[in-house]
């Protein structure tokens, strides 16, 4: 698997106690916070948060909404990198607890809020970004299931995934969308450009995969500015979504939420990723 060095996302311990004295420079909040109360629809709230929440935001937490919590606590739902996080602010506004809050029956009291305020909207946001990326269609447009894969033309694990997916793709059950990147070898970008600029990118991709053992597709001599920009945007999206190697695979589960697989899935996991064979 291809590996790249990137700046680590915020790492939060399962339980972290912060005091109001630990505040720092506040990072801008990307989206307006919302509030969930019971079955009520989320409503817009201010993004000016108490000091412990701002301290977490300064460390990379993205707050997406608030929710009611027991024992005088206020719940905050957010993201640490690509991971959903629950934060509980004490009633005096001076401390924040990060992690799962369990009731007497062992239920996570923030689970519903995380699904409503984080998992669902972030899944929709992620899927929209993937749709707008520079990808190569692999399979029928009428296929009922779509799977995205960040792919490098020189990646052997991408080639293995392409091969493993043939029964689903050939049967018209799955359309793969290869989000092309050029990061593994010096000629990866030139090969990706050869695929993206071919008269039939799907046929060019197929040729690369079928002849992978013999070097794959012939790289173009020069990568155009347009294709270079597309490849750079795809790589940034790959890193944003938490992938440090290829293939980075994304698909929708039965609830319509985005699920990820980093690297070539295990054989037993293929039906989860690609659906029933």
Automatic annotation (TrEMBL):
Presence of the UniProt keyword Transmembrane helix in the record: no
Annotated signal peptide: 1-25
A Pfam family this chain is assigned to: Thioredoxin_2
Domain spans labelled Thioredoxin-like fold: 143-274
Principal localisation: periplasm
Presence of the UniProt keyword Transcription regulation in the record: no
CDD domains xref list: DsbA_DsbC_DsbG
Keyword line: Periplasm, Redox-active center, Signal
Subcellular location: Periplasm
GO annotation, cellular component aspect: periplasmic space
Function according to Swiss-Prot or TrEMBL: Required for disulfide bond formation in some periplasmic proteins. Acts by transferring its disulfide bond to other proteins and is reduced in the process.
UniProt-listed PANTHER family: THIOL:DISULFIDE INTERCHANGE PROTEIN DSBC-RELATED (PTHR35272), THIOL:DISULFIDE INTERCHANGE PROTEIN DSBG (PTHR35272:SF4)
Family: Belongs to the thioredoxin family. DsbC subfamily.
NCBIfam families, sorted: PRK11657.1 (NF008657)
Protein name: Thiol:disulfide interchange protein
Native source organism of the sequence: Lysobacter concretionis Ko07 = DSM 16239
